[in-house]
Amino acid sequence: MAGIKSLVKDTAVYGLSSIVGRFLNWCLVPLYTYLFVASEYGVVSFLYSFTAVALVILNYGMETGFFRFANKHDEPETVYTTSLVAVGSTSCLFIALLMEFLTPVSGWLHVSAHPEYVAMLGITVAIDAFTNLPFAYLRYKKRPFRFAGIKLMNVGLNIGLNLFFLLCCPWLMSRCPGAISWFYEPLGGAGFGIGWIFLANLISTICILLMLLPELTGRRYRLDTSLLRDMLSYSWPLLILGIAGVLSQNMGQMVMPYLFPDNKQAADTMVGIYSANMKIAIVMVMFTQAFRYAYEPFIFSQASQSGEGKKQAYCDAMKYFVIFGLFIFLGVMYFLPVLRHFIAPGYWEGLRIVPVLMAAELCFGVFFNLSLWYKLTDRTRWGMYLSLICFVVMLVCNIWLVRWIGIPGGYMGSAWAALIAYFAVMVISYFLGRKYYPLDYPVGRMGLFLILAAVLWGAGAWLSTIFVAGVAYAIKILLLAIYAGAVVIERKKG
């Protein structure tokens, strides 16, 4: 139980940075949706979906590989410096190649008129890939507070720069242009538009790299080629897993513009609506992300211990992940009429995707939780296979459902495609895990909480139709308290 308490504590700290950080970034969504029309915001989401893929490629599974080998190698410092040298070298190579082929890449990404967008995002993602390792090192050293502090600083800088570029600069140009015209006008001024979003991200990323210098300096760098080969052998399936996974997570934004090439503005608008409403479902993503930060070091540290207690810890972790995930689902759905005001009314037509995407993210979280069986048994190829299955299912479902629904509501097909794909790989991984690393997960108890959450969700929706808003919200809070009471009872039972 001590292991679970440690996992809960670390999840809480990582979760603070993740939840607060995501919430603050979330607060930028109203700014973007009120300043930019859906088609422009769709371009932002479209480009960021590709940077997510590039980040996984540039990291090529070395983050997980670092945890695996640092916990079993005699010299964890060598594991760390070898990882840094490898990822640093490939990140520099990526920047050089991108600059060389900037024009064709910009055309392929449908922003041939603005290659500077691609250049800024390329440099940003290369730095992010490199800094993932110092952040992993902080997690390995169990320094969650420094990790969280730097992550929050990154968010704060990014938000501050967004507000400065998008709101303060236009105001200053109308009153005292001499203060900022030296950099504002050469970049295009207000006409630079969404480019200011990418520039803010780049500057904040460079600042975070500087903050991580203590984790990068004052050590003897060593590239152990034999160790690197072993790490790559372990990690390359995770690279395929990661690419397929991130393609699946961003499938909707990436596919829609290519499915309707003759109506680019309508497709970009659908991407914008889909992406904006995804931000409402991001609470589940934040919870899953916080759990992932703490869970990966947890499973490898537990694996080094003897006895069967570690298996019980894995089962308990799964149970409480599902229980608290369902609680978050209920909270968001109960207060969706309030949360919708975080995006402009012009985007509200996409609110119907929120429950579908939250259910999909919960399935994805369970799938990640189940991934311990192939990570601990060094069968990482299975992770690759499962992610490829997820990718194929989601791609086929996107092409079919989005086209079938068509313009303007095709984004609903992307939401259902995500749920279908994540549910499928979750079930497959569960049965494979029973074969290769059997764990006695409390499926019955988790099922009861799923039924309870479904009943409470239905009750809340029905009550909203017969009571005024104030009374309905009061009853919903009571329903959440009932669920929380069930969690307390479950906790006492152990």
Topology record:
Layout: H1 2-26, H2 28-35, H3 38-59, H4 62-70, H5 76-100, H6 102-108, H7 115-140, H8 144-175, H9 181-184, H10 195-211, H11 225-249, H12 251-259, H13 264-278, H14 282-303, H15 309-334, H16 336-339, H17 354-370, H18 372-376, H19 380-405, H20 411-436, H21 443-466, H22 469-493
Helix pairs in contact: 1-8, 1-14, 3-7, 3-11, 3-12, 3-13, 4-5, 4-7, 4-11, 5-7, 6-7, 7-10, 8-10, 11-19, 12-13, 12-19, 14-15, 14-17, 15-17, 15-21, 15-22, 17-20, 19-20, 21-22
In helices, the fraction of residues equals over 70%
- The residue ranges in which pLDDT falls below 50 over 5 or more consecutive positions are none
Quaternary: single chain
The end-to-end span amounts to 10 Å
- Beta strand count: 0
Rg value: 23 Å
Please give the count of helices.
22
Shape: globular
Task: Please give a structural write-up.
- With 494 residues, the chain is an all-alpha fold.
- Helix content is 81%, strand content 0%.
- It has 22 helices and no strands.
- The protein is globular and about 65 Å long.
